[in-house]
TrEMBL record:
It comes from Capillimicrobium parvum. It holds the Pfam family CsbD. Coiled coil: none annotated. PANTHER family: UPF0337 PROTEIN YJBJ (PTHR34977:SF1). This is CsbD-like domain-containing protein. InterPro entries: CsbD (IPR008462), UPF0337_stress_rsp (IPR050423), YjbJ_sf (IPR036629).
Length: 57
């Protein structure tokens, strides 16, 4: 599991815990972690595509 996946999973847990306890800050923190994980995954995917393109040349 990559960093992005871990952040998204952690964010899901925090958001769910915030929902259960009605903790708005924890809910927001969970959403931020999820977004951060998505960005990390997209950056990693883009980097992989660039590396693949460079290797083909």
């Amino acid at each position: 599991m990559g960093d992005g996946s871990m952040d998204r999973a952690k964010g899901n847990i925090k958001e769910a815990a915030g929902d259960l306890t009605d903790d708005k800050d924890l809910q927001r923190e969970g959403k931020v972690d999820q977004a951060s994980g998505s960005v990390k995954d997209k950056v990693g995917d883009a980097a992989d595509k660039v590396k693949d393109a460079l290797r083909r040349d």
